[in-house]
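About this split. The held-out portion is used to measure sequence recovery: a designer receives only the C-alpha cells and must propose an amino acid at every position. Recovery is the fraction of positions where the proposal matches the reference. Here is one held-out target exactly as it appears in the evaluation file.
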C-alpha cells in the first residue's frame, strides 16, 4: 500500500497547514511511508517554519495520550483506509481525506479532555523504547516530543525520554535525526564512545563495525567523549555539510565537507557513489539486498565506481555496473552473482 501525500496536495483539496500536518503525521505513524513519501515530508516541513511547528504540536499531543492511544489508533486506521480508497477511486471518494482528517482532529480534542478529566496525563517519570529495522527496511519513528528518527536498514536504537532530558543510543546501523525544539530538554545521541549533542539541527549518525560517522544535514551539532569534562573546549562543533568519524579509540577524524545529497540518498531508497572502489560499493549495496555479490578477480575490486543506484533494484544495479566499468556478471543461482573482469576479444578465443 503506497500513499502519496503530495499527490493529494496537488489535487486541489485545499487543506490548511494544521490539517496537512495531521495528514503527514497519520502517514508516518502508519508505518507505510515510502522513501518518496519521506522525501516529500522533508521538503514540506522545511518549506516554512509554521509547517514544523504544527507537526511538532500534533506529534507532541500524540505522545501525551499514551493511555488513550489505542482508541485513537482505530481512527488513524480508518483514515488510512479512506486514503487508500481515495487513491483507487478519486471521484467516488473525493471528500474522504478531508473528512478523515476532521474526524481525527475532533477525536484528538475529545481524548485530550478524557485524559485530563480521568487523570491519565502523566507528569513525572520517563519512557524507554527500543526500535529496530530488518535488512532492507526503512522506518520513521515519531517520538512523543515531536522529534523524528528515520532509521535505515538493520538499525537498532534505544530511546529514553524524561522530563529532564532526551537520550538515544544508536547500537548499530544508521539514522537521520530531526529534533523538535518545542521544549528546552537536551537531545543527545550516544554512538560508540562519544556523545552527539543537538544544537538545532538535522543530522545523520552511522555506526558500523565500531566505526561511527556523523554528518550534519541542517544546523549544527557538538560531539564529545564520555571521559571528557563538560567544558566548552571538550566539544567539537560541526555545521551543515560537515562530517567527522571515529573508531573504537574515539579519536576524531579531521572535519571535512561532504555532499548532503549523498549523505541522505538512503532516505529515498538510493545509494550515491563518487569514485568509490568497487569492493566498497558492493559492501554498501549488500547492506540492503538479500543474496551475495562475489568479486572473483581481486584486481577489479579497486576499480572506481560513480553513480546513483536504487538499492531495491538488484538487476538494475548489476547491469549498470557492466556498463560503467569493465566487468561481467554471472548469475550462479537466484542468490549469488559473480563479478569478473571483462576479457578482451583476444582473451576470449
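Reference sequence for scoring:
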Amino acid at each position: 500500500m503506497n500513499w502519496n501525500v503530495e499527490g493529494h496536495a496537488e489535487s486541489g483539496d485545499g487543506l490548511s497547514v494544521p490539517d496537512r500536518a495531521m495528514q503527514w503525521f497519520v502517514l508516518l505513524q502508519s508505518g507505510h511511508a515510502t522513501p518518496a513519501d519521506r522525501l516529500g515530508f522533508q521538503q514540506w516541513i522545511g518549506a516554512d517554519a509554521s509547517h514544523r511547528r504544527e507537526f511538532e504540536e500534533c506529534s507532541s499531543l500524540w505522545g501525551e495520550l499514551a493511555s488513550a492511544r489505542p482508541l485513537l489508533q482505530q481512527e488513524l486506521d480508518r483514515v488510512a483506509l479512506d486514503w487508500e480508497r481515495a487513491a483507487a477511486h478519486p471521484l467516488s471518494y473525493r471528500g474522504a481525506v478531508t473528512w478523515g482528517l476532521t474526524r481525527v482532529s475532533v477525536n484528538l480534542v475529545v481524548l485530550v479532555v478524557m485524559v485530563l478529566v480521568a487523570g491519565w496525563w502523566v507528569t513525572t517519570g520517563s519512557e524507554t523504547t527500543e526500535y529496530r529495522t530488518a535488512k532492507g527496511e526503512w522506518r520513521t519513528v515519531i517520538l512523543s516530543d515531536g522529534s523524528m528518527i528515520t532509521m535505515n536498514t538493520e538499525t537498532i536504537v534505544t530511546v529514553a525520554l524524561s522530563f529532564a532530558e532526551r537520550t538515544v543510543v544508536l547500537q548499530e546501523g544508521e539514522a537521520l535525526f530531526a529534533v523538535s525544539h518545542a521544549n528546552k530538554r537536551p537531545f543527545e545521541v550516544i554512538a560508540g564512545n562519544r556523545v552527539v549533542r543537538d544544537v538545532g539541527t538535522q543530522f545523520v549518525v552511522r555506526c558500523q563495525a565500531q566505526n561511527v560517522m556523523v554528518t550534519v544535514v541542517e544546523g549544527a551539532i557538538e560531539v564529545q567523549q564520555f571521559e571528557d569534562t563538560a567544558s566548552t573546549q571538550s566539544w567539537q562543533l560541526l555545521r551543515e555539510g560537515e562530517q567527522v568519524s571515529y573508531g573504537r579509540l574515539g579519536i576524531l577524524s579531521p572535519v571535512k565537507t561532504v555532499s548532503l545529497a549523498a549523505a541522505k540518498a538512503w532516505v529515498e531508497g538510493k545509494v550515491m557513489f563518487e569514485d568509490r572502489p568497487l569492493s566498497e560499493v558492493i559492501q554498501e549495496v549488500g547492506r540492503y539486498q538479500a543474496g551475495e555479490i562475489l568479486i572473483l578477480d581481486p584486481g577489479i575490486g579497486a576499480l572506481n565506481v560513480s553513480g546513483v543506484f536504487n538499492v531495491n533494484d538488484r538487476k538494475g544495479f548489476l547491469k549498470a555496473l557492466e556498463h560503467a566499468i569493465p566487468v561481467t556478471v554471472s548469475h550462479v543461482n537466484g542468490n549469488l552473482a559473480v563479478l569478473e573482469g571483462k576479457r578482451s576479444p583476444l582473451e576470449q578465443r
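Annotator remark: The chain has nine helices and 18 strands.
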